[in-house]
Amino acid sequence: MKKQARLLVLAGLLLPALLSACTATATTTVQGPPPARVEVIPVAPSVRHVWIPGHYVRRGRNYIWVNGYYQVAPARYRAWAPGYWRQSRRGPVWVEGRWR
User: Fold this and answer.
1) How far apart are alpha carbons 8 and 26 in whole angstroms?
2) How many C-alpha atoms does 94 have within 13 Å on its Cβ side?
3) How many domains does the chain have?
4) Rounded distance, CA 96 to CA 61, Å?
5) How far is 52 from 24, CA to CA, in rounded Å?
6) N or C: which end of the chain has fewer CB within 10 A?
7) What is the maximal distance between C-alpha atoms in the chain?
8) Are strands 69-72 and 49-52 parallel, antiparallel or unpaired?
9) Are 63 and 56 in contact (CB under 8 A)?
10) In a domain, 68, yes or no
11) pLDDT tens across 3-44, in order?
12) What value, to the nearest 5°, has the Cα angle with vertex 96 and ends 90 and 100?
């Protein structure tokens, strides 16, 4: 009887230790793009040109910097709404800028 009691006590002590060793934890880290670069904006070629700021674009697992540039605004648009990073389930997603 004492032997069975010892086995039950031992099993009661070892069982939680064995079960805790079976648990697995997984950590997923989604890293966004690096901070935007500081750009020196040159003088506009004309008053009709609008500065389109530089930004990072994701290519596979890497982020590629696209330099800023001047562009003539289309006739019916006056302002440029810059692109931005939106968080999704799969990680950061680049939303392209647009004319408004």
Assistant:
1) 33
2) 19
3) 1
4) 19
5) 47
6) N
7) 98
8) antiparallel
9) yes
10) yes
11) 666 666 656 666 566 555 555 555 445 567 788 889 999 999
12) 140
Gap between the Cα atoms of 100 and 91, Å rounded: 27
Cβ neighbours of residue 73 closer than 8 Å, sequence gap 6 or more: 48, 49, 50, 79, 80, 99
CA atoms within 13 A on the CB side of 73: 17
Do the domain assignments include residue 37? Answer: no
Q: What token pair was written down for 12?
A: 């009661």
CA distance 56 to 85: 9
The confidence band for 57, taking pLDDT boundaries of 50, 70 and 90, is confident
pTM: 0.60
Residue 35 lies in a domain: no
Residue type, 84: Y
Name the residue range of residue 79's domain.
Answer: 49-99
